Amino acid sequence: QIQGMPYGNCLLLSDGPVNNSTGIPFFYVTPKDNTVADLLKNPVASLTLPEADGNFCRKNVIDPEDPRCARLTLTGQMVTVPPEEVEFAKQAMFSRHPVVRKWPRSYEWFFMKMNIEHIWLQSWYGEASAIAVEE
Fold it and tell me: Which GO terms describe its cellular component (predicted)?
């Protein structure tokens, strides 16, 4: 009933093994997930990372949904990780989320990554700044 309509979903992500962040979001996904099925048809996606994952809001006891807590939004194309990058994607994902090793193999898990095209940082009450992808 919502075919063709955008919607959000929560997916585990990693941008590299611990102590080797790359800035490239990797995902361990299954084609049985409607989100992934949609991305395989139309790979355009956005990803919002809340500052709640950092220290500022927690340290200052600020609600993560408060506008003072920054949000970084990445937009781009979701693509299947090519064979030459799969080992790195495995290290990236499994080092940060070891539980995924135990996920049922029958779900046909594979790796995707986002090729980032645009970055926006919303840092205060609706104010957004574009950030160069190279940064």
Answer: cytoplasm; endomembrane system; extracellular space
- Looking at the domain assignment, is residue 98 inside a domain? yes
**What does the block give as tokens for 32?**
């049985």
Q: How many domains does the chain have?
A: 1
Q: How many CB atoms lie within 10 A of CB 29?
A: 22
* pLDDT tens string 7-19: 788 889 999 998 8
Range of the domain at 126: 13-131
Q: Chain-centre distance of CA 110, in angstroms?
A: 15
Name residues whose C-beta falls within 8 Å of residue 71's C-beta, 6 or more positions apart in sequence: 48, 49, 50, 51, 121, 122
| Of the candidates 48, 78, 75, 80, the residue with the CA atom closest to the CA atom of residue 64 | 48
pLDDT digits (tens, 9 = 90+) for 66-122: 777 788 899 999 999 999 999 999 999 999 999 999 999 899 999 999 999 999 988
